Structures are given as C-alpha cells and as structure tokens.
Amino acid sequence: MIEASGQVALAGAALAVLVAGAVWALYAGLRMRAAARSVEADNARLWALIRSAPARAMVVRSDGRVELSSRLLDWLGLDTAPRDLSGLSAGGAGLVAEDAERLTAAIEATRRAAIPFRLPVRAGGSDRLLMAVGERAAAALTRDAGVIVWFFDATETQGEVQRLAERVELLRDAYQALKGLIEAAPMPMWYRTGDLRLALVNSAYVAAVEARDADDAVARQVELVEMGAPGAPPVQALAAKEAGAPRTTAMPATIGGQRRMLRVHDVPLADGGIAGFAIDIEELEQARSGIRRFGAAQRAMLDRISAGVAQFGPDRALVFCNQPFRRMFAMRGEWLADRPEFDRVLERMREGGRLPEVRDFPGWKAERRGWFTAADAQIEEGWHLAGGIHLRVVAQPLPDGGLLLIFEDRTEQVQLASARDTLLRVRTATIENLFEAIAVFGADGRVQHWNNKFRTVFGLDEAMLGEHPRVDALARDIAPRLANPSRGALMAELVRSATADRLQRGGRVAFADGRHFEFGAVPLPDGNALLTMLDISDSRKIEQALRDRAEALEAADKVKTAFVANMSYELRTPLTSIKGFAEMLEGGYAGALTETGQAYTGAILESVERLGALVDDVLDLTLADQPPVRALLAIGDAAESAAAAVAPLAGEKGIDLATEVQGSAGKVQAEGRRIRQAIEHVLRHAIAHTPAGGRVLLHVDGDKDRARIVVSDNGPGMSAEAQAHAFDRFARAAGAGERALGLGLPIARQLVEAHGGTVALLSEPGQGTLVTIELPRR
C-alpha cells in the first residue's frame, strides 16, 4: 500500500515533470518561432534596404572567390556571375581591362593591409562610370580576411562633375581676368577682411600711397585716406559694413605730393569683407567750380546787356532774370524772389500791358507753354505791344527741360528801319537829281546803279544799262565820245582798282565835243565801287585863265624883285655921297656952321643912316629866298657876333643887353651870315621897342635835335592885332615906333625858315615880348 502510494507519488512527480517540460518546450518553441519571425522580418527589411540602396556590393573572400548581386552583373554587363576577380573582365564584357587590373590590385592591398580605396572604373561596351569603394569586410560577413567593394553608379555624377569642372575653369579664367582688370585699373582699389583690415590692393593703390609693392602696403596697413585715430578702422568702411549698403564719400587725399579730391566707394560683400575703390574727381571738382564761376560771370554779364533774359527750370519756375527783364516788364524783385511759375509770369506781363493783345489768352498761353518741350532748337517771334513797342522774343528749350527766353527791344531798330527806308527814297531821289554823274559797280565789275546824269553824259541807252553790262563793255561804248579814246580803258582800270584793290583813284577826261569831266573811283564798304563824274568845263576855263594870270604875276614878281634889288644897289651910291658931304659939312670943311646948321647936318646923317638900314633890309628881303650855303656853324659864336653888332644901338638908348650862351648850344649846319642877320634883326626889333633903361636878354641853348635862340625884352609888349601882323612884309604894326615898315621880323623868319627852322613870338601888353628861334641840327 505504502509502496503503491510511493509509486503513485513517484509517477505523479514524473508526470508533473513531464508536464512542466512540455510546457517549457512549448514556451521555448513559441519564443523561438517569434524570434525567427523577427529575424525573417529584419532580413526582409535589410534585403529591401539593400535592393533600394544606390550602391551594389561585391564580396571578395580571402581565397579570391567573389559574390555579387544580379543588379551589379547588369551594371557590369555580365551574363553570369564570375567565380573570381579575373572574371570581372571577359570578352569585352565587364570592366575595362586596365580598370579591372587596377581594381584587383586595390582589393589585394586592402585585404593585406586594410587600406581602403576609392577607384573609378568603367563598364566595357557602355558609357556607365562606376565608383568602387572598398574596405576590409567584417569577419561576420566573410569569416576570413575578405574585402567588400561597394559600386556606385557615378555616370550622372561624373557629368555634373565635368560641368562643374568646366564652370570652375570658366570662373578661374574670369577671376584671372577680373584680377588683371583690377590690377590694371587706373583708380586705387582694395579689399578689406571682416575686421576691416587691408587684405588686397592693386598697383594704382600702391602708387598712390607710395609703397614698395602690394605686400608692403598690406603689411604696413597704409591707408589711402587717413580718417580717425591711427590704427582705427576707416569710418566710411565701418559705416558701410554696419549699414550693409554701399557708401560713397568725397574726401581729400595727398597723391604724388599734390592735394587731390577723391570719391571713395565702400561696398560690403557677402563674405563680410569690404571692397573699395577711389575715383579722382579733382578735375571734375575744378570743372564744377569753373562752371559755377562761369554761371556767375554769365549772369553778371547778362545783367549788363540791353536784352531782357529770363530762365525757367524743369519745374517751369523762374530761376533767373536780369535787370533789363525786370525793367522791361516792370517786375518787382520781391515778387520774383518767390520763383513764380511760367504761367504766372505771363499773367503778370499781361496785367502790366507787356503782352500782345490776343482774343484767346488761355490758348495763346498754352502754346507758349509748349516751348518747354518744343522739338525746334530755337523759336523766334515778334511781339507788337501797345505804344508802338516792338519786342523780338527768342525761346531756347534747355537740355534739362527748362527754357531760356530772350526779349530784345527792337522799337528803335524798327523806327530806324522806317527812317532808313525814307532815307533810301530820299537818297534815290537825290542821286537821280544830282548834277554829278554817278554809277555804282559791283565786285564783278557790272554796273548796279546809275543816275540819269550818268546816262545822258555818255549818251547810253536805258535798255543797255538795264542789262547791267560790265565796265569793260561800257568803256568800249564810251571810248568814241572821248577826245582820247584810250582814256575809256583807264576809267575801267580805276573801277577794277577800287573794287579789287580797294584803292581810291581819280583823274580827268576830255570829251570830243570840248567838255571836260573830273572823275573818281571810290571803294564802298560793301565791296562795290562808286564812279563819280563832275562837269568841270567852266572851271577848266577859269583854271586856265588863273594859271595864265599866275604866270604873269610870277613874271611880274621876278621883275619887281630884280627892280628892288637893282634900286637897292643904286640907292647906295647917292646915300653914300649924301653921307660923305654931310660929314664934310659937319667937320667944317666948308667953313664953320652955325648951331642951326649943325642941327640940320646931324639930322641929315641920322636920316641917311636910317635910309641905309632900310635899303639893307629891302636887299636882305629880296635875297632871303635863295637857298643857303650850309657849313658847320657854332651857334653861340653867331649869337655873340650879332649881339656885338647891335651893342652900340643898345648903348645909345641905355638898354642893358645881356647874352647867355649855354654849353648845349652846340653847332648846326647853316650859313653863318644869314643866321647872324636873323639874330641881329630880332635883337634890333627888341631894342627898338624897349624904352630907355630897359633890358634885353639873348639866351642860347639846345638839345640833341635842335639849337634854340631866345630874345626877350621888358618893353611894353604887343597887342593881339600887332602879333598877328608881326611877320607880314611892309606892314605897320601899332606901336611900332620909328621902324614903320617893320621888316626885321619878316626877314628873320624868312632866313630861319630857309634853314628848316621856326620862329615864334609871344607877347602880352605891358609884359614884354619873347621871340624864339629853333634851328635843326641837320
């Protein structure tokens, strides 16, 4: 029983164990089944991932066997999978032979030294390019030192790479060209890094800062324009970087020892740097300054011209007007200072009555407003205002859209034109009725105008003159009417001389019928020539009569001169006898004379002396016209000799005769006897008109061109009438005293003028008289 129960218990325990083991087995089976399903799912997922991957793998085992997918076989162009690496290139399929060799060598190096590789290979018979990437495979994959090679289809990538390479090449060329352009640029250019330090500069920059080369300028950070504290970043570059926009600044700089104005441009770049360049605007600034000065000078000039000028800007507002414009249109300065618009200016002109009267003023104003955009370079019209005022208006559209107006007051010109027309009509009527014959010849020698007298003098036909014949044809027609037919050609030559050579010439011509005409060819300002002919037949007769009379008078004058000369010589003989007998009577040769006899004898001697002097004067007067015999003469000696000759006369009257001879008197080419006579006659005249106790001064000096003799006295002087006749022959001047004929000064003048000299007299009543003789050195 006990054994049976033990057996039962044992059997139960065994059954329990069996049940427990079955349960465990069932649990383990279910678990393994779940794990297998998970592995299958992972395997399927991995295979799906491998199939969708852009790369295909090839496993190379250590013994040389290869494993590769069917898709890789398609890439390589193989029908069957190769067993080893040698099968990768067979019969034109697979890889290109040299690529297969390079791949085999790379796989062997990876297998032995674990050196990964990237190798482009090409499939034979196609354009496919593969990128083989190899590395040692994990032991779990090959269980030995195998290699896994991934093949990527790089055909499209290689095309893109090729395109990129070509673009890189283009960009490199462009960069080199841009670099060369920047280097050759005449303006300084530079590049700053993000910290605003110079990194690159061109040759122009190097030359501007006087550095050795670009590296030197960058190393020393030499700035083209110093701004701010030394070493601080340029203000304009910093402002451009902070604003993220280009900045332009005009600033001065010293380049090549000269102060220049630069326009500096700083441009921020995408990499954080700043590119810059500087343009020399010194000449531009000078040009602008010159334009401003020119504008100011032009406006100052426009203020001084007589025409009114007004300038309107592109906005049609008044920019400038000169003073004549303000006066012409009665514009106030304060109103013009507001820069009124064009329409307002026209309205103000109309209010002041300075515009023409028009029916449609708005339409008229709109037409003038169109001047701003007119295609014509210049517009001109005339304004006729009230009161007979005529204005010439010139409108000039300006390139900037503005308008320049010029108002010229032509009222006076219109009036002058009207007066000119009247004068032309008067001139035509005057010329037509002149006693002179007149004809106008053009520069081509054709007759242009003529009066009726010209036609009738030569007997020319009106129809022939209407054809405006040349002067040669006229000369041939008028030649038969002249006493000397060749004179017609001379007249034609004179007309040509007046038109071509602009010379004025004239002459006389005699007609066959006895008439005489004086003609002249005068050049006119317009290039034409005026031929005038005056009938001098009557004056020619009178001239001949006067010529005959002059010849007769000349012959009579010669006879008279010869008679006077002969009479002067003849008078000397009786005068000498009278003087001799009177002196004998006075000396007592005929007996003693009474006191009355002595007085009579003295009067006779005195009268003989006076008559002898008068005869000498008449003789000198007749001989003064003869040419002098010149020799070198010391003018001081001649003056002293003349003074010595008249000294007794001065002593008789108690007159102080003083002589002053300066060293500058020098010598002259003259006949000594005549010069002494001239000085002596002037001295005698002074002594004769100076009262007793007076003073006469003879002064002699000179310069390099002439010698001068001055005779002055303190006598009563001469009236204006006496001075007017002082040098007239045989004229009695008022107050001339005993020298009634007054031949002294005329003889002196005639003697001096024969030597090319001059005699001048200066006198005032009560102030004395001064006579000046000047003789040329040559």
From TrEMBL:
Coiled coil: 154-181
Matching InterPro entries: HATPase_C_sf, HATPase_dom, His_kinase_dom, HisK_dim/P_dom, HisK_dim/P_sf, PAS, PAS-like_dom_sf, Sensor_HK_Regulatory
Top class in the EC scheme: transferase
SUPFAM superfamilies xref list: ATPase domain of HSP90 chaperone/DNA topoisomerase II/histidine kinase (SSF55874), Homodimeric domain of signal transducing histidine kinase (SSF47384), PYP-like sensor domain (PAS domain) (SSF55785)
Gene Ontology terms, MF aspect: phosphorelay sensor kinase activity
SMART domains cross-referenced by the UniProt entry: HATPase_c, HisKA, PAS
Catalytic activity line of the entry: ATP + protein L-histidine = ADP + protein N-phospho-L-histidine
Record domain Histidine kinase: where: 566-778
Keywords, comma-separated and alphabetical: Coiled coil, Kinase, Phosphoprotein, Transferase, Two-component regulatory system
EC number: 2.7.13.3
Record has Coiled coil as a keyword: yes
Source superkingdom: Bacteria
Protein name stated in the entry: histidine kinase
Organism annotation: Sphingomonas spermidinifaciens
UniProt lineage: Bacteria, Pseudomonadati, Pseudomonadota, Alphaproteobacteria, Sphingomonadales
